[in-house]
Every structure is written in structure tokens, then in C-alpha cells.
Design brief:
Elements lengths: L8 E2 L10 E6 L15 H17 L10 E10 L8 E11 L3 E10 L5 E13 L4 E2 L4 H8 L4
Antiparallel strand pairs: 1-4, 2-4, 3-6, 4-5, 5-6, 6-7
Length: 150
């Protein structure tokens, strides 16, 4: 852009088999509701666990290196129930990287059956907690997010 700010990067949507990161976990008894399946709210914790594992993989500790983030939007479409002791594969891919936000898409699959359990999407915003305002994604963080695909 002419003002020196980074140009938003719109990435092509990937097919389910093209997710760039995968995190496995076992469903715990405490994740299940009175009906015996994973409670709907717990899926957002699964997304968070995958996102943090991905950030650690990129080189951060609890978040993106050099960037504080907040979740501005989260959605989940439930496809099939998961039950205690099921092993789930949470897959993640970056689908959009803007000036101060980026979008992640997820697929949650039952490892034993390959069945799609849920599809989800989150929008994260790089954020300055002192000012309470969004800030541009740093060049270093953008490079990590894009994995060298600028």
C-alpha cells in the first residue's frame, strides 16, 4: 500500500485434506455433557488447544511471537457427536491475513473413523492491551503466519 502499511493477504481456501497443522487430543470425561457426548462449548477449547500448539510450533510460547491477540469472532458447525475416550484430530489452516487480523479455519475429525465431527473458524486480531486497540500485524509475525508465502 502507498502509506507503507502491509497489503492484506487473501489466501486461497484449502480443501479439507490441505490443512497445514494438526493437533490430536483425547476426549476427557469432563468434556462430556449429560447426554454422553462432548458439550458444544468444549469444541472452542479444542480449537484453542490446537491454535496454541500451532503458535508454539511457529516459535511462540503461549501466543504468536511478538504479538498479543484476541479472538474477535468464533463459529463452529457441528457435524457428528464425539464421546469420551475418542481421539480427535484438530486441523488448522490460515485462510486470510489482513492488516491487523487473520482468519483460521479448522476441521475436527474422529481419528478412528475419519468422520468429520465439526468445522470451525476463528478471526484473531493483533491487539495492544494497554491502549485497548488493534495494531498492525508485525512483519515478523506476518512471515511466521504465512510460512514464507508472501
Amino acid at each position: 500500500m502507498a502509506d507503507g502499511s502491509p497489503t492484506p493477504t487473501h489466501l486461497p481456501r484449502r480443501e479439507p485434506g490441505e490443512f497445514v497443522f494438526s493437533h490430536r487430543l483425547a476426549v476427557r470425561f469432563r468434556d462430556c455433557d449429560a447426554m454422553g457426548h462432548v458439550n458444544h462449548a468444549v469444541y472452542f477449547t479444542y480449537l484453542e488447544q490446537c491454535r496454541f500448539a500451532w503458535w508454539r510450533h511457529l516459535g511462540g510460547s503461549s501466543g504468536l511471537p511478538g504479538a498479543d491477540t484476541i479472538i474477535a469472532h468464533a463459529e463452529c458447525d457441528y457435524r457428528a457427536p464425539a464421546f469420551v475416550h475418542d481421539e480427535l484430530d484438530i486441523r488448522l489452516t490460515l485462510t486470510d491475513c489482513g492488516k491487523s487480523s487473520f482468519t483460521l479455519q479448522y476441521a475436527i475429525l474422529d481419528v478412528a473413523t475419519g468422520k468429520r465431527v465439526a468445522d470451525a473458524r476463528t478471526v484473531s486480531v493483533t491487539f495492544d492491551y494497554l491502549t485497548g486497540r488493534p495494531v498492525p500485524i508485525s512483519d515478523a509475525t506476518r512471515r511466521l503466519l504465512l510460512g514464507g508465502r508472501e
